[in-house]
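Office hours follow-up: a student asked to see two folded examples consecutively, so here they are.
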Amino acid sequence: MAGYNLEAIEAAPLKDDVDIVIPTIRSLDFLEQWRPFLQHYHLIIVQDGDPSIKIKVPGGYDYELYNRNDINRILGPRANCISYKDGGCRCFGFMVSKKKYIYTIDDDCFVAKDPSGKEINVIAQHIKNLETPSTPHYFNTLYDPFRDGTDFVRGYPFSLREGVQTAISHGLWLNIPDYDAPTQLVKPRERNTRYVDAVMTIPKGVLYPMCGMNLAFNRELVGPAMYFGLMGEGQPISRYDDMWAGWAAKVVCDHLGFGVKTGLPYLWHSKASNPFVNLKKEHKGLHWQEDMVPFFQNLRLSKESDTAAKCYMELSKMTKEKLTKVDPYFEKLADAMVTWIEAWEELNPPVKSEASEEVNPQVKKRQSDGKDVKAN
């Protein structure tokens, strides 16, 4: 697409603009295979579970490692908003990062190959997705018009072809698909072997199940909304940390005028988790999602919520008001959402500038019209 040098984006590692966030309970031997693609980036490793266990990181990587003692020391009483014994602990890495972009990956994921046999550079593809616009207001039947070899099709309004800033790039997985426990039990041997060479914008008003194992986002645009909830030990639910973050962040993106892409890049998900253990963790979420999804589909954010942090604070009030009737847990979650924003702003004080005021002109236009936005 004219105006976007995709070769330059792929060639430039943007190593000073990207942090890699990895939650883990084990030594990170898997990074050896990722060395050609990740070694030049700074890693933020969030150690879950017992902080006395020593995590080994392959030599040659530049990294920070935080365990639960570090989280308690840095956040003090606000540390209770960070999940324990759950992959949602990764959002602490989002909070302490100072980079523009975050890429987060799980420690059972490896480099995949495309159909030609070429190893996939996930960072390069995610950066392409994030550095080129999204098209959430009108679906392009050739998918992402900003990829090489494609464009907007006939009938696509010229007034919408500029697109909007992309805030989230959601990648996929070969081999072990991201299934819930009931589907795992029904299809224990199923593997994803389909490589679909496509990137598409998720339309405005449409929710999706966001998986955190191959995910990149623009921290400056939506960082405060990427809270992976209060899950794991001491909570009645787990394995919905990324789902909660995905639903919330998508509603915030729709309201602020940002886009979300899904599709490429793929990685290789190597290990299927135990479906019986997963069922214990998920069983409440499997019921609650029938209330959570409509909640996000139907909520309205006010015109005063013109930043991700303000949106999330308003969302916390709505969560307490609407979802506590589903289960008292949601009152605790709503309080944790407030604590999360307080901790985020303590470590990342808001800076008002001309650039920040110009980042979401669509919201400013809607405000001038005096209209709210409905996320469906």
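And the second, which I mentioned at the end of office hours:
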Amino acid sequence: MAIHLSGVFFNKASISPPVFQHRRRPPLTVFATASAAPPPSSPPTIQIVGGKTASWYGNGNMDSSNAIDSFEEEYDWADLETDLYHWTKTLRPVQWYPGHIAKTERELKEQLKLMDVVIEVRDARIPMSTSHPQMDSWLGNRKRILVLNREDMISSADKNAWADYYGRQGIKVVFSNGQLGMGTMKLGRLAKSVAAGVNMKRRARGLLPRPVRAGIVGYPNVGKSSLINRLLKRRMCPAAPRPGVTRGLKWVRFGNDLELLDSPGIIPMRMSDQSAAIKLAICDDIGERSYDFTDVAGVLVQMLSKLPKANNSILWERYKIDTDGRFGKTFIHKLAVQLFNGDEHQAAFRVLSDFRKGRLGMIALERPPVHSRAA
């Protein structure tokens, strides 16, 4: 049997297993005992318009060594998800569902009936974890635009991987930076073009055209209000780098032909996927009262130690502390003793803050599922 990798054929028997063995690490950790991890669930199919051309996959000029490195990297990301499942098993569950979200969810479902197009905003560092499991059922066949915000916090390889992932499904994606306004004007044009048929139908019925209605939805603190403010070029919606700032629905007009609905972040009532919940906590996309800082920072240290494009050198360069990648809390304790007189909460907050502000580099915590990329 032969395997084809980017224009190069290999006989399956000629690829020695040790090529990959040096990359696999056992999920041993201070946080949890090992057990069988459940298979990853398939992502929902969504209809999205706009975005960039995929370029990460299918490079016919890639040589055989790069092809094998890319194949290895896919398995590293799969291994990381398995390890993360084990690490979170004995931690305090991350749960956060303030009262205003339940109210907003009810109101948003009613407002969705009035929308011509929905703009779903996700965190580019964790696109899967910031995808609401009920979003597809709420929107039905309504037209959608997917925005991966905070593109400045991930690498070009990460962006290309996600563009390729959605492109293989016939889906395009818009990358944006709500803080600096990158991608926002393109988003405004897309919203109008996607819903152009609305006024065509109105004219056919003898009705006057009206502004296109676009709702902006997503998890807390993914940058929804910042995107609207950048589109409008003025501060119309309250925005701050923490979850829960927007607490009510608000319609704002963009020119004469587009109306935008800003909405509070919505999350599931119960976070059944604790691997995703931990990533929400790491990226500050969920209320800080829902998690223990030391636990979350410890998991982040272990993830950084095993990410294919990161490794222990990032932590060493920043903190001058060694880590073996398996005992994140030990690293936090060492940092606390070195800088904070033994205060582990302050040490954990420093590590999380450094990651959230990009001081550790452009690092994504997710890549598209291996089985989806290989399809």
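Two things to take away from it. The radius of gyration is 22 Å. Residues 157 and 368 are 12 Å apart (CA to CA).
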